[in-house]
Design goal:
- Strands 1-2 form a two-stranded antiparallel ribbon.
- The two termini are 41 Å apart.
- By secondary structure, the chain is mainly α.
- Helices cover 58% and strands 4% of the residues.
- One of its GO terms (molecular function) is DNA binding.
- This is Transcriptional regulator.
- InterPro entries: Cro/C1-type_HTH, Lambda_DNA-bd_dom_sf.
């Protein structure tokens, strides 16, 4: 359920960005605080029906936010909202004795009164997502979302000024040359996953990582070491453990020694 909420939060940010709203402007349009919107966009609060109803009036694709499937008529929504706005827009009145100047003043007898409606037309276009054909699959998108959550959680634990969820997504998108992660080309998935895993690796190497959540830190170290040394390097790993620490299991290592093994494996794999 928490993963679903996080995925909905990510799609909410996508929709707000698609519509051209900043977080502050969007919150103002919805008569709510920026902090309230932030809680929705970080997955810390469930998105309610009243919020979605108001957001739909601004052009938000509610179906996409809830399910990840774009609404068939999403392209028509902005135009319909613009047409509705045109019918209620208050006209601007300008008065000119000659009928040509743009200076507004009190109309005199015989003056021409011109009515102008300066409604601005905004047309939003969005690239079509083709999962598994041109773009990453649903499963790959879910994996990237999970990795982003890991990055955000680690950032919060080990850094004084942690990167926000929106910042992490933004850096991933820029790394892959796209405007949103669902548009990452299928052939660039490994590049995207590697980018996030390297980020996680850097954070796990911070001194605070083993202190703030030692259990998770050790599990991550175990998983990495075993993943990288399974197969032909498994024998090397066991000999290394016994030669340097006189143990035959990773769980018997202290935090410092476990980190030494992790770094030794990283070096070994890099030179392989």
């Amino acid at each position: 359920m928490e993963i679903l909420r996080v995925e909905m939060a990510g799609r909410l940010i996508e929709e707000r960005t698609r519509l051209g709203y900043s977080q502050v402007t969007f919150a103002n349009q919805l008569d709510m605080t920026r902090e309230g919107l932030r809680l929705y966009e970080t997955g810390q609060r469930g998105i309610g029906g009243e919020f979605l109803a108001k957001a739909a009036m601004l052009g938000l694709d509610v179906q996409y936010v809830l399910t990840g499937v774009e609404s068939p008529n999403r392209a028509e929504i902005p135009q319909k909202l613009q047409d509705k706005a045109l019918n209620i827009q208050t006209p601007i009145i300008t008065v000119s004795p000659e009928g040509t100047a743009n200076v507004v003043h009190v109309a005199q007898t015989g003056a021409t009164v011109n009515f102008y409606n300066n409604q601005k037309h905004v047309v939003n276009t969005k690239a079509e997502v083709k999962p598994g054909i041109e773009h990453i699959t649903e499963a790959q998108a879910a994996k990237l979302t999970e990795l982003v959550e890991n990055v955000v959680n680690l950032e919060g634990r080990v850094r004084k000024k942690p990167a926000s969820r929106q910042s992490v997504w933004g850096k991933l998108n820029r790394h892959c040359g796209v405007t949103r992660y669902r548009l990452i080309p299928l052939e660039l998935y490994e590049k995207a996953e590697k980018f996030l895993r390297q980020w996680i690796g850097r954070l796990n190497s911070q001194p605070m990582a083993s202190i703030s959540d030692n259990n998770t830190w050790r599990k991550n170290r175990y998983a990495y070491i075993k993943l990288k040394t399974n197969g032909e390097l498994e024998d090397w790993r066991q000999k290394y453990l016994w030669k340097n620490f006189q143990v035959d299991s990773l769980t018997a290592l202290s935090d410092d020694d476990l980190d030494k093994v992790y770094r030794a494996v990283t070096t070994k794999v890099r030179r392989k």
